[in-house]
Request: fold
Amino acid sequence: MLNILTQHWSDLWSGLLFTLGSSLVALVGSLVIGTVFALLEISPYKALRVIGKIYVEVFRNIPLLVITMFFYVVIPMYIAKVNGFTSGTIGLTIYTSAFIAETVRAGIEAVDEGQMEAARSNGLSYLQAMTHIIFPQAIKITIPPLGNQFINLVKNSSVLAFVAGFDLMYQGNLIVSTTFNTTDTYIVIGLLYLVLTLPLSYFMRYLEKRWA
Amino acid sequence: MSMIEFHDVEKYYGDFHALKNINLTIDKGEVVVIIGPSGSGKSTVLRSINGLNTISSGQLIVNNRDLADKKTDMNKIRRDVGMVFQHFNLYANKTVLENITLGPQLVLKQSKAQSQKEAMALLEQVGLADKAQSYPRMLSGGQKQRVAIARSLAMKPQALLFDEPTSALDPEMIGDVLDVMKKVAEDGMTMVVVTHEMGFAREVANRLIFMADGEVLEDSDTKSFFEHPKEERARQFLSKIINH
Reply:
């Protein structure tokens, strides 16, 4: 096992960096996009609610791999060439944002509706009430399920392996194809994923404690 | 001068007819108490006044503005008409002081220093200056409600609505809240109060309104309401809650 680690360290390290990079971009992107669609879903305007709902239902219910292949294969045919890393990261962002939208929506709806009524009758606009009262409370409620989404996101970034995205899983597959040492390689790959996800998991738990 | 006017107001929640042909005028400086069994539409009347509910038809005029008019700025109405809730609804993520200063800072554009100074004076007035830095979850129900009243007063409203402000309180807390409300009334505030506290009504209210099944059944000055209520249902209701 140590053999795999030492002999292929540079490939594994590069894979780790690609996985980390894709995950970070997708994490920030899906958090922003997911929050926007969550706000659409609870908007007072029906048209916006419908748009939010359609987005969430479509991308939550299509496999990540299908979304990714769409960007990797279909988009280049009509619009522009997209490399594997980019199409995988876009797919990951869109797919995860649908789940985050649902998580954030549930968090906002879990805040007692008396808070919004009090804020509005206090003269605050809808937007002011959201930013100063509802959102800060919703974030606390949302942290634990959001942590789950982030961990899923890091693991799901292995979709990059299918579109030549040079991530950890992709490098693992390459190593296996030259060494045929499947057992050791996949154990090492699994451990390297833990190196990314365990600290993330503990960080989310820390946030949960600090803000609760 | 009238502050609030209902003209032929109707309200439906789906098929449920919550308000039936409501006609009411509340003048500036008046303290009006609304009583009636639960489900009679008392809260719906209050919530309509500051736009938390919309009415189905009729006309509702608050501070000379027609609420049905698209040009009416509801934020402006709510700035002028404060509301105190049964369950307090203090901002859970803000300290007591921040609960009171948020509206003045965001809506009235007061400076931080000015809003804090005024908030502390209000906390002094409701006897909770020592709780300025506490969070709502650390307060008792009665303390929360007094903070909620201070929060409403900080907006310098022209009228205050109270939706069963003491119904969720332990009996020993009720007196403190009613004392604060009495002081506010003595300062000349226009008040519409939904409550079952008949002692408060008798002592502070100029007028009593009795509602049942979405209708105003009786609307008379406090003295005559208590001494000889015209309506049989009002009489029955009164005897039930007073002899209880």
